[in-house]
Design a protein that fits this description.
The chain is mainly β and 119 residues long. It contains no helices and eleven strands. It has strands at 3-7, 10-13, 18-25, 28-39, 46-52, 57-59, 67-72, 77-82, 91-101, 104-109, 113-118. Strands 2, 4, 5, 6, 9, 10 and 11 form a seven-stranded mixed β-sheet that branches. It is elongated and about 45 Å long.
Amino acid sequence: QVQLVESGGGLVQAGGSLRLSCIASGSIFSINAMGWYRQAPGKQRELVAAITSGGSTNYADSVKGRFTISRDSAKNTVYLQMNSLKPEDTAVYYCNADLFSSVGKYVYWGQGTQVTVSS
């Protein structure tokens, strides 16, 4: 009933930019928070950025000043603007949402979108 669909990943050269989008759909009553995680080969999944329903944001130290998370609550959509990309940003990026739906409060994950930054 609830799905998160990411888009916007791709291949970009170092110093370039990408914007990721994630749309939550289904019988959603409210969203407490949405965020972006990433996982590179051989590494654990890590938080990149998150935003609450009140607009508070949180970023990983490695992306502060380069990435910006934003949301469109009316569309149940979260964005991640990524500027000054570095090869170490290469990873699969996953959308995350903590939300209330017709079946209760649960955390949902998208399928992931690949971001590759070449040097």
